[in-house]
Amino acid sequence: MIKQLFEDSALFGANAPFIEGLYEDYLQNPESVPSEWHSYFDKLRIVAEPTLALDFRDVPHGPVIESFIRLAKERSRRTTCDTPQEPLLDKDDLASERKQISVLQLINAYRFLGVRHANLDPLKRQEKPYIGELNPGHYGLTESDLDTVFGTGSLIGPARASLREILEVLQQTYCGSIGVEYMYIADTEQKRWIQNRIEGPRAQPDYSPEYKRHILERLNAAEGLEKYLHTRYVGQKRFSGEGGESLIPLLDNLLQRAGKMGVQQMVIGMAHRARLNVLVNTLGKVPADLFQEFEGKQPQELTEGDVKYHQGFSSAVSTPGGVMRLTLAFNPSHLEIVDPVVEGSVRARQHRLQDRDGNLVLPVLLHGDAAYSAQGVVMETLNLSQTRGYGTGGTVHIIINNQIGFTTSDPRDARSTLYCTDVSKMIEAPVFHVNGDDPEAVIMVTEIALDFRMKFHRDVVVDMVCFRTLGHNEQDEPMVTQPLMYKIIGCHPGTRKLYADKLETGGIIRAGEAEQMIKAYRDDMDAGRNPNKTILYDYKSPKAVDWTPFLKNGKWNAKVKTGLAGSELRDLAERLTDIPAKFKLHSRVEKIIADRRLMGEGKLPLDWGMAENLAYAALLKDGFPIRISGQDSGRGTFFHRHAVLHDQNRERWDEGTYVPLRHIAPGQPDFVIIDSVLSEEAVLGFEYGYATAEPDELVVWEAQFGDFANGAQVVLDQFIASGEAKWGRLCGLVLMLPHGYEGQGPEHSSARLERYLQLCAEYNIQVCVPSTPAQMFHVLRRQMIRPLRKPLVIMSPKSLLRHKESVSSLAELADGNFQNVIPETRKLDPKNVRRVVACCGKVYYDLLAYRREQQIEDVAIIRIEQLYPFPHDDFQTEINRYPQARDILWCQEEPGNQGAWHRIQHYLLRHKRPDQALGYALRASSASPAVGYLAKHNFQQKELVAAAFRERI
User: Fold this and answer.
1) How far apart are CA 254 and CA 261, in angstroms?
2) Per the database record, which ranges form the Transketolase-like pyrimidine-binding domain (predicted)?
3) 481, exposed or middle or buried, with CB in 10 Å at 0-12, 13-18, 19+?
4) Which H or E run contains 848?
């Protein structure tokens, strides 16, 4: 019979995936498929794997698919043969079997495509498209089949039902207020779980009268705040959440349910739309404080501050599972850029709580529909979700789908995909679309989404389709560009009114009770109090991070001991070079490790790789955890770090690697080093978020080349450089940006030093250019030991990593500290010095070589290792050594419009005597960071070095 079906039906070609789906049904429950298919799959399993026990779930799909292909080919050959084939079934049986298969295909179609006919739009503007696959006639089923009873396959419910009943169930489940996309998920268990949750109750919420009243109360709060602000502060921008009021009961349910499941902390990221509503009605910000911000009366403790709809907030709420800490991340106007910042903050908290599975700390990201589909950082952040270095156990994504972008009037101008959520499919995240005018459906999908995340620890998306009552902001007039849409919106009574009327009709609330709730909320607003009874004010979490040691000002010049005793350094070096006996190193790496042993014994000078590893080892021994990430951080882009060693006989990462820094001392803190995904923006945002949540961990992000940080400029501008001034957010993140002109062209020369110096003000960040391995050792140690948490930007070396003169001794690590200014190292007669050349980085060694070659004795060379905050006292001390110097000259490799010159000249002028001149030696100003031809590079380099020593400037 089955063979006849293959021969006579159109199951091959486009419909072949259906058979595999049927086979999946069989693996889950053999009784869920027609008996003929059941028998066929039984026989096929025995033929394919005769030695297997009857565990249907373990049968591979490969033999099944191969069998389908083989049968198809046999059918093709017989079709071309003139010999008539004897039918294996009579016509009635064959027709019945075909219709049964058609019913199963129809069920499958609704699971895939039912979302296209779901009632998702509160404005009902779009006609539902014709989807042939949702029409029974597409499969040869007719009206006369409606009362015929068929097997329902894996459809949750009765094993057999009439076609009419099956259609009713499918339309109710997949075409109501909820539309689900999940059939693209490869994991069968996840698909079955979703089917049980959505098909079991037929996507119909069932809540108690008491909880329905609670939903109304939350809707009332959401609408009440917006109307109150709109009346009291007419025309002031607040980026209203009107039209999306169901967001507030959604969040209320999410955090209460998460708390019941044991979640202790929730970190929320969102842009400005509805942010004030979330601040007040979800996190419990006191309305009186918000009103002061509207009135400009809020005393500003921060250096600069930020607008009210960018502000973050932290609070505590009571849940059935205990107290939950809520954090709303600070966010600039760059919409989705907060996504990786939240993920990094969550990862740090999970690390602190030893929450390896993500059961205690939950990330929640709220998105706008246009931004979610359009901004690349969304994709980058999604791509981090299941990686080992950045995973947080799954994120709950909530789309506030206003069906409109900033000024866009048509979805065709906003994206190239059918749904704004389609980017989520790249990580096979299920998507639950829901009509925002059906708050009970919104709550239902929120519960399913959270439960999915907590069970499978994967991302999940709730797409709440709503609308935007007002313009982009309260001063905008949307009728200019969307007249028809806003005519419909103008007639919409509001989600709260629709739901209140529904509850009153159903006898859940009394007539007039909804109006009483409105008045009560307004009374609370007039009094400036928050009616949310779950908020716990003045709660002190015992697990909160103590930032107070880092809050006092004036610590830039704090002297701290970063050196270590020689015996300690030798012991750490021994730990770093103690490799397991059977671990086979690559020959080049073996030589590096052997040299490091000699360095630890004082028989070779220390190179950069060894000094850096010693810094990490020393910090680990002091009790500081370390996290380093970058696109080639384990080995090092320039083959210098080798913090992760690879066994040449094994390639599996869980077996074939050895990390010496994880074996420094018993009970040491974690050392994590990650070869990151090929992302700058999301990864740097993640590391910033991590560092803002964990002040006692050294967090380092390394660009593969310094100019790659260009791809993360928004993180640098909006968070790293200005986060403290705007929001009071301290951060000790370290950025290593390889920098130096070695003739590698415009893309791999400059780390764009000038951009970081331009961002420097009010002692916000540190910018250092270490020129020796010892300097790198001490600056990394200083970053954690000094009671100060400011971002540190390091212009790290490339060719200097192996420069014969750029080395250090163990004594320099033991006895020294980071030198903001390194004086002239040669014993020159101060009275004979005619010029002081100031520089930083690699060019120092070129100047040194030229001076030696030309036997110049009247020019002193000073290295400024910390460009910001500028070390005025240290620099003045060096200038005072040369009272006869006629001029001060700044030398740099970069063009004049780049590098440090434009910023440094103002500092140098402050230290120039009236009788001295200030000059410079550098490349001519250029639109490009560097030339692309090596010969031209070498010519320019020689010219600028020679110019630094010419008699006249």
Assistant:
1) 11
2) 606-803
3) middle
4) helix 843-854
